[in-house]
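Instructor's aside before we start: the two examples that follow are unrelated to each other. I chose them only because their records fit on one page, so don't look for a connection. First example below.
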Amino acid sequence: MVAAFGDPGLLAARELFDLPVVGLAEAAMLSACMLGGRFSIITFAPPLRGWFADCVATHGLASRCASIRAPDAAPSRDVANVQDEAKIRDLLVRLAEQAVEEDGAEVIIFGGAPLTGLAALIRDRVPVPVVDQTVAAVKQAEALVALKVRPALAGGTRRPDPKQSRGLPRPLADWLAHEEAPAAAHSRGPGGENE
């Protein structure tokens, strides 16, 4: 799981590894699409709006995104505790209400890893469904594992051809060179079979 809301490196990781790779943003947005027609992303810092807009576009979901809202200025210098202050939570709830009333959002996503868990704290204060990015990513990962799909052998997420590298940890260098043991890429199921 890529635990940053803008999903940095997500597409490259999907090419590189033969297991499901899930990003917080994509999982939250796809979950939101199952709950309503259009979603809005509410975040805590103005500079994140552009990054998140690029992420929405990369995932092909621009037509489903009603808005990306953030305060005019970052409400806290302590990013790790941004959701802990009541005044910041109140500000984020107001932005969510504006997204619903002014932008037509039918689902709200609080975007940015430091906002994980906020949905559960304020969902009763927002008049539309609220998606928690981390819960969505974990559940999407579980669903992908349960589907038991095989790795892509063609297309854009096919594992790249072998290549040598320098300066990388040995397991990653071996993986890039296709020198790993065949079962190393997969976990073993209860009966010893590859999953």
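Example two begins here.
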Amino acid sequence: MVRYKATIAYDGTDFSGFQVQPKGRTVQGELEKALAQMDKGKFIRIHPAGRTDAGVHAAQLVLHFDYTSTIPKEGLFKGLNVLTPNDISILYLERVANDFHARYQAKSKMYSYRVDNQGVRNPFTRNFALHHPYPLNQAKAEAALAVLVGTHDFTSFCSMKTDKVDKVRTIYEASLKIDETTKEWIFTFHGDGFLYNMIRIIVGTVLEIADGRKEVEEMKKVLEARDRNVAGPTIGPQGLRLEKVHY
């Protein structure tokens, strides 16, 4: 039995999320289907560092699986890239110790969220950025993001559908860059973990502050309220991308 660590990328547009489901096309389902084809129909479970929702993308998601065949690593790597659909790529594949665990040994994750701030939506980025055509104030957005850095209870920024009891997380970075050519706002979040819909709710709240619907001072009040009802909307999944998992 050999344990492999794989780093994959995928366009989440046409997936019902990462986790396998009874109905719906999923990233996990496609990967496990490819592994079964490689190993003569034998089912092999994959274990990801995390899961993404429908429409969310990943630049570098890490996962592990145990493989019984003696096929060389290079052959497995090439075979998986042939058998997976065009919206999934295996970027790296390596043998690791049998006690490696993609989820439990991950120390932090980095996500980005992209907002298209052009007056007219860009049809070529509609699956990868949220179109928000209203005037935005960068200074207000950055001030709101600064409130979130550190260790806090993020109940206000978590979906009420979550099964997590402990909602304390640490954010190491919450930053913003703006591409003046494309008018794309790129939010970056680096933390030890993120709750269900947390980033989508945070950016939804920041956009309300940046476009004047809320004041900067309200961000701290929202955070301290620990009440989902006082935060902004859960914006669309298309702008969210897992950038990297740190070990």
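The mean pLDDT is 96.
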